Amino acid sequence: MSVALRDPQRPDDLLNYRLLRLFALAGAPVIRLCEGRYGVTRREFRLLCLVVDGGAMSPSRLSELAHLDAARTSRVVAVLLKKQLVRRDVQDGDRRWALIEATAKGRELHRELFPQVADINRQMVSVLDAGQLAALDGILAALTQHAEAVNASIVLDVRADRGRGRDRRARDGDSDWAAVE
């Protein structure tokens, strides 16, 4: 398969498709656990984890750590505020400058849910021996670093328009993309 990854001939040979399939399969139990038992989405839990682990932080810092755009981060924070899992502390009386901080309820949810998500993670990687696990960690780090460089160097003249793409995919009946989003 490594030859196919270097010279893809069909969609299943593309690295992004393979990673997406793994992400969907490995993430399904986490989604069921988060949403079904705790009433939070995986994204909400991810942001809550960042705030619990990193302490109070600005929405822009949270956005950066979560690898989300500011608008999406703002929407998730609004939901976390409504669920009383975080609080927004306005700084110096300026509503534009605030820190997002986990509430006691948010920290309790994290304390209860994180070990279960970590256990699912352990189960997913349990098929790998120590050498494979170390290699995977190195490979993921190298691919992430290279993806950042590629991202910064190509397709700079075109701005993504996800709404337009979603409309086109729906119009064309491309239901496979629905699972991606």
> What is the 3D form?
globular
- CATH superfamily grouping of the domain at 38-126: Winged helix-like DNA-binding domain superfamily/Winged helix DNA-binding domain
CATH architecture of the domain at 38-126: Orthogonal Bundle
Tell me the total number of β-strands.
2
Mean pLDDT: 87
Q: Tell me, what is the CATH class of the domain at 38-126?
A: Mainly Alpha
Rg from alpha-carbon coordinates: 19 Å
Order of helices and strands: HHHHHEEHHH
Beta fraction? 5-15%
The major beta sheet can be summarized as: 2 strands, antiparallel
Structural class: mainly alpha
What is the fold named in CATH at topology level of the domain at 38-126? Arc Repressor Mutant, subunit A
| Distinct helical segment count | 8
Strand order of the largest sheet: 1-2
Distance between the termini: 27 Å
**Helix content bin:** 55-70%
Uncertain runs are: 175-181
